[in-house]
Amino acid sequence: MKVIFVHDVAYVVYDLLPEIRKYIDAEYIRLTRRPVLTLKLLLRKTDLIHANYCWTPAFAAYYTHKFKGTPYIVHVHGSDVRRKQLTELQRKTLENAEQILVSTPDLIEVMEKHGYKSVWLPSPVSKAFKPLREHNGNKVLYRHLPYESEKLKVVLKSCKRYGYEVKVMPYSSTWIPHEKMPEYLNQFDIYIDRFTIKSHSKTALEAMSCRLAVIGYKNDLEILEKLRDIDYRGWFVSKQQKILEGHRAGKVAEKLFNIYKKL
Fold first, then answer.
1. Angle of helix 56-68 relative to helix 34-42, nearest 10 degrees?
2. Which helix (H) or strand (E) holds 73?
């Protein structure tokens, strides 16, 4: 079985390819302009197209299906569908897809509101994300998002109150190569994730894998006080490891392969 992956979001495909290639013949095509991308897909022989992001990648897959009959999957990642209404082309693309996958569990409800059923494929976490030191210090990394501007002052105030040294990570983190992220995350002891979206970001999962304490949508910032206690922090981090069980890249690849087989 051959599958062409189109585009990548948050390095999901990057981390998944080494594992999924144990089951299938997989090819990756980078994002480019829609006509060029569609032409590339039309000229390739494949059993299935796995389009990441319900915009240009998925539209190219839709037109390839329309002209050539190649089946495709649409894998949505959040910002492509977190809107009041989908465009007409988005709807046509989703309606003709063999399967709709979502990158976080909260997106299942989002897709239901749009009128579509979907399956959650957990974001894969590479084996490269592992602890390189003990994380018992006071260094905090906060991934500040533009739609959570009001949270920045609150985070900075809370960290100062409890004696933490905080670094604000910009929304666009492309300045850090993905292969350097394990080393970068290991410089810190606590990672503060997004609050408004009811799921863990991929970076949060990677931080957990490095055994940082991760504060997210389920936590109040007052937990920073408890995390000063090293015994409590150790318990907290161990508890979070259970979240990672379904996110190991090998398990995600196995789940995806089983989805492919059912199509």
1. 40
2. strand 72-76
pLDDT score for 172? 63
Residue-wise pLDDT tens digits, 168-202: 987 765 578 899 999 999 999 999 998 888 999 99
Distances, alpha carbon 113 to alpha carbons 86, 147, 154, in Å: 11, 22, 32
Distance separating alpha carbons of residues 17 and 23, to the nearest angstrom: 10
Query: Which of 101, 84, 118, 138 lies closest to 12, judged by CA?
Result: 101
Q: Report which residue type is found at 141.
A: L
| Positions of the chain with pLDDT under 70 | 172-174
How far, CA to CA in Å, does 236 sit from each of 76, 131, 132?
A: 31, 15, 18
Structural domains in the chain?
Answer: 2-124+248-262 (3.40.50.2000), 139-245 (3.40.50)
Question: Could you count the other beta carbons within 10 Å of the beta carbon of residue 56?
Answer: 18
Q: How far is CA 1 from CA 30, 45, 46, 108, 115, in A?
A: 21, 11, 8, 28, 30
Q: What is the pTM of this model?
A: 0.92
Determine what percent of the chain is predicted with pLDDT higher than 90: 89
Task: Answer yes or no: are the C-beta atoms of 83 and 111 closer than 8 Å.
Answer: no
